[in-house]
Amino acid sequence: MRKASVFRSLGWAVTCIAIAIAFLFPLYAVFTAAFKDPTELTTTPATLFPQSFTLENFQLLNDLGDGVWTHIGNSVFLAVFTVVGTAVLATLGGWGFARYRFRGQGILFIAMLSALMVPFQPLLTPLFLVLKSLGVGNSLVGVGLVYVTFQLPFALFVMRNAFLNVPQALEDAARVDGATGPKLFMNVLLPVVRPGIITVALFAFLSSWNEFLAALILLNNQSLFPLPVALAAGAVNGNNGVRWPMLEAGVVVTMLPCLLLFFMLQRYYTSGLVAGAVKE
Amino acid sequence: MLLIFFAVPLVQMIWMSLFDWPLLGQQTWVGIQNYITMFQDSSFVRSLAFSGAYTLVLVPVLLVLGMALALLVRPKRRGVGAFRTIFFAPVVIGFSSAAYIWIYLLNPRVGLFDELLQTLGLTQEPVYWFASPNLALLSVVVMVVWKSVGFGMLLLLTGLLAIPDELTDAARIDRAGRFQTFRYVTLPLLRRPIALTLVFSAVGSVLAFEQFYLLTGGGPEGSTTTVVMEIFRVGFNNFQLGLASAMSIFLMVILVVISAVQLVLLRDQSSLND
């Protein structure tokens, strides 16, 4: 009996480790590739264990499009715009939906959730024209507005639940102590719903940082491209074929913030997914 | 805001789909002509068929593998958290990054994958993964499984962890075997996460863009062009915005149907619970 369970544990561990190696292998390949020197990187056969270590590939990124810092800047701008916009609107809106009853509230909330079901990709053609007529066509602000809009339904949903979980007694107690309006909101409620805000911000960051199609369609100037689009234009589909050293370094720069944030804030990601999936 | 960026574009898109609408120049009313043209357009029909086939291949694979992984990382054993994290990590890096990684990995000249296969003695020569339609599709499916299977795993795992141990224990006491317990106790309780996993992966596959745009470029010879790629080729390379709108509406109808199926599935379940 005992022996069987030892074997079973061992079998389980071996299976998990084998799958884990398969999952980590692509990441291992790209991280090592980014630090190989360009000659080693482009020589056949590829080396499983790197023979060289250099930062040269990252310097090559300066030749990407308008220079890598421009594109990192664009990506950061979009991410900050999306995160701040989504967090502020969802927090205020979530509070409204949770605390105040108004006519048509149910319908409005359902209408919003149904927008969750329709992704934005099919809407890009008209959005292109709408942004243009609003004077934010071909601009980062325009793309940011699109990201915020399509992030909002999910974010409002999470924030409404967060506010619904705040005990009414806490709010009443604060009122008795003389806190009102904005003060009540800032000092009493905000700290309590902080996990919800972090969840919303994390999802907004990941979706805007990784978004590709809308940025590709809505932006025409190379100087406005965020990092993933700049890599497609400069390192993959360029005139001289794929520029591997630049691409590998670029991918590492692109995905590192996502992986780091995920490892740090994992439980917020999971709770957001559960909130969206189980209660929706 | 939702009004400006959602309702207005929706109405405008329906409106536009009734016109011959070039990016610059005169718009002309053509009624439902775009909807007719669209189905006579062989590359659109072909892209629809391809996206459909891709979805039908990918969705079951993602569900079965997601379930297998979820069952694997369900037990509370030492180190299980680390495995959950590792299996899920590729989900957060975005489709474009994943595509960039795999272009490199699968490249016959500089990539590690062929080198690994040859070292293991599985193949003798480098394989040109994107040269034939079937291999290209296979490569993308493998890439997407790596990138997305963690998402289904997490949804299903959440469902599995919500099932109280007493239920499965009771089934065991009633002498149900492992498989029977899974089939008659666990699976019915997982209907909701299963439905969600199916819908998320189906919507994701129907909307597939980056994985093909970057990995295969739609080739060889247009054989792996997806609907979304085709719509934006028509809209933003050929500037036939009216036709592209009609195609988008058709795509949207498909997506709404998929979501509606989800609602029906979930409603069935809630009535079972009553």
Automatic annotation (TrEMBL), chain A:
Residues 72-265 form the ABC transmembrane type-1 domain. The keyword Membrane applies. The chain crosses the membrane at residues 12-35, 76-95, 107-129, 141-163, 184-206, 246-265. The keyword Ion transport does not apply. CDD domains: TM_PBP2. Its main location: membrane. PROSITE patterns: ABC_TM1 (PS50928). Keywords: Cell membrane, Membrane, Transmembrane, Transmembrane helix, Transport. It is found in: Cell membrane. It is a multi-pass membrane protein. PANTHER family: ABC TRANSPORTER PERMEASE PROTEIN MG189-RELATED, ABC TRANSPORTER PERMEASE PROTEIN MG189-RELATED-RELATED. Belongs to the binding-protein-dependent transport system permease family. This is Carbohydrate ABC transporter permease.
